[in-house]
Design brief:
Blueprint: E1 11-14, H1 17-34, E2 47-49, H2 57-60, H3 64-82, E3 89-103, E4 109-112, E5 121-130, E6 138-141, H4 145-154, E7 161-164, E8 170-175, E9 180-182, E10 191-204
Antiparallel strand pairs: 1-8, 2-3, 3-10, 4-9, 5-8, 5-10, 6-7, 6-9
């Protein structure tokens, strides 16, 4: 028997059009204010961000529809992560941080992860508001560091990155420890997303 014991769950879902219309309206209102404080001092790679400028954009601007969607998707993610266990598990998901990223043409982002940022966040994710064609994929790095070493030593071609090309109105959620980066924005337009961290309190009823 061959089984996979180290699979990493990644949720990707396109929000239904009717709900995303409401979220788009929420996002447009928030962006009017967030553009005033966004800058690229944090990463210095042509991505204007409100990271460390706004504790939580979703909360600050009352983005209730997006918050509702993220709550539902977080529940789906937790169910997938715990389905292998027989015991019943409940969770309390708390939005820790959320911030805008405005990627100018030519922008990109290096490898990074979100685990442990000013709290005990377990999950992180991105809502994609504007994604022009060719503006870059989100690229997840395998957490098995030995794969990278094997490729360097023997050039055996094991895939160490998984590229996900998002569409507008979609959400991706993943474990906060998972390293990821953003590919080069080769379009002539801005790429706009809203990132977030979620803390989970797991309650074991048994």
């Amino acid at each position: 028997m061959i089984d996979g014991f180290f699979s990493i769950p990644i949720l990707y879902e396109v929000i239904p059009k009717e709900r995303n219309t409401l979220i788009t309206q929420e996002t447009e209102r928030a962006l009017i204010e967030e553009r005033k404080v966004a800058n690229n001092d944090v990463w210095n790679n042509e991505i204007d961000t409100t990271f460390h400028k706004t504790e939580s954009a979703i909360t600050k601007y009352g983005m209730s529809e997006l918050n509702n969607v993220l709550t539902e998707l977080t529940g789906k993610m937790i169910k997938a992560m715990t389905s292998q266990y027989e015991k019943t598990i409940e969770y309390d998901g708390t939005l820790q941080h959320s911030w805008f990223n405005i990627g100018q043409p030519g922008s990109f982002q290096f490898d990074h992860f979100h685990h442990g940022w000013e709290g005990h966040n377990a999950l992180s994710g991105v809502y994609y508001y504007k994604v022009p064609k060719g503006s870059g994929a989100i690229m997840f790095k395998s957490p098995i560091e030995q794969l990278t070493l094997c490729n360097k030593l023997w050039d055996i071609g094991i895939q160490t990155y998984f590229d996900l090309v998002p569409s507008e109105g979609s959400v991706v959620i993943f474990p906060s420890f998972l390293k990821h980066k953003v590919g080069l924005n080769q379009s002539n337009e801005e790429r706009i997303s809203l990132s977030f961290n979620i803390a989970l309190n797991i309650i074991d009823k048994e």
